[in-house]
Amino acid sequence: MSGADARVLAERLAAMSDARLGSLLAARRVSAHVGWRDFFDAADALLAPESLTTALRQLPRDVLADLASRRPIADEGIASSLVDGSGSPLPSVHRALDGVDLAPARHDAPQPADESAAARAAERAFTTLGALADVLVAALATPLSRVGGGSVGASDRRRLVQDEVVRDAEELDDLVALAEAAGLVRPVDRAWLVADAGEDWTREPTRRRWEILATGWRDALPAGLRTREGGWVPPSAWVDAYPLDPAWPERAASALRLAALLGLIAPDGTETPWATPFRAGGAADAGPLAELLPGEVDRVFLQNDLTAISPGPLVPALDMRLRAMTVRESHAQASTYRFTEASLSSAIAGGETAEAIRSFLSELSLTGIPQPLDYLLTRTAERHGLVRVSVEPGSGHTIVSSRDHHLVETIGVDQALRPLGLVREGALLRTRAARQTVYWALADARYPVVAIDDDGRTVALHRRRLAPAAEEDAPEDRYRAVIDRLRASHGEDAEAAWRERELDAAVRAKAVIVVEVAMPDGTTRELTLEASGIGGGRLRGLDRAADVERTLPVSLIRSVRTA
């Protein structure tokens, strides 16, 4: 790095607005707690070899080629810290790219998929939509654990693979990556939580599900893969898009896998008909894809063995509601759902009523409601609410009560409920545990429990833990302390500040420098000094020509250069 480069960059940084400066610091991945004192410190740090290498790794091939060829480039993002006022690369940046092969990437148009390949891609996309819906439903019940690298935890991987929701762990991570790109899930601490948009997505029609996922995937593609028209460059160019980033080949492979999961790329690598206009910058349109998807049904067969058989893929909104009152036993296109007392109790606790369930099943069933199912629903509804969980206003303790005192006695001695610390008090049970904790412990133990609010009304409790709304600070707010410190240190006389910095660096290096000094008669004189110290507004150095130690007021020094 040269001092001239640092000075040019320091002046550019000082001239930026707070918003633009904050965006640049975020793009360069600067810590919000960095201890820079002034803009010269910032320029030195951003042009340091390690920092420069990190910045260049984030640039796509075309931008790097322009920098290496000294062609002016767009002054935005990371590039604004690598170029001068005309957009030309700083000499230190050009030197860092010396010897790097940056031949322009070839953008060969993809081959169109034939009918057979397109049909297989459509089947893959349909499977992806179903599998992701299953993953989100599982995550709504129990958030997926998240390890350091962002992958799903090993126990959740095993569970979802064993339940045949996904084929393997890699597919699970790819589905979560798709969901994150579309804003359906969000990492919170050490878990993947479903966002409000994710819960809504599970009830969307199939075509809309695909369009949301595909749009999210496209918008999340790195800048080096996007085109000015809003689409993306041909996939054949992806692997070479970021030639200085050693991690890029793995990221490019991941992007290609996600494109295949969405049916944008056929198994033989060709491009599907619905992908072509999308790649060119058009909106995601599932119309051509929908023509190849299996036909959805809106009716099921209800059977005497308390199962519901769907003769084909059930319309998503109906599928989600049916799942809320059953246990899904198979994930094939012809799915099986089983009614149990626990599943019906859970549905009623979630806000359904016996009448609403009967009405829904009557409209859904091709075979009416079998007597065994009707009897199970009646019995479950009658028993529901036999155990009541409320909060005592004065003490805040949770109270468990029932009109069936024998049932209260049973709960009081149930060994599975001992961790709640239930204490018998007449016909009641009292505990310091939270109402929701007590409610779900009783529900898991198969007791017909309801939660009661302060007004004595039944309230539906949900186990779902949704991700909180994203609260992303603007970069300028995140770097407010840094920006304010840099602004405060930036005086009107930047020339004098830079000169003092050069002198300080020369003293630390014991360098021999040539200083131009203003003389009392108005003339200037050049002196060659071996810089030895600076302080109190004065520079000390050995004038070897005269073999004397000189002390010069810094205010009289007009320029400094290396001897």
From TrEMBL:
Domain Helicase XPB/Ssl2 N-terminal, first and last residues per copy: 301-424
Family matches, as Pfam families: Helicase_C_3
Family annotation (InterPro entries): XPB/Ssl2_N
Source superkingdom: Bacteria
Protein name, UniProt field: Helicase XPB/Ssl2 N-terminal domain-containing protein
Classification lineage: Bacteria, Bacillati, Actinomycetota, Actinomycetes, Micrococcales
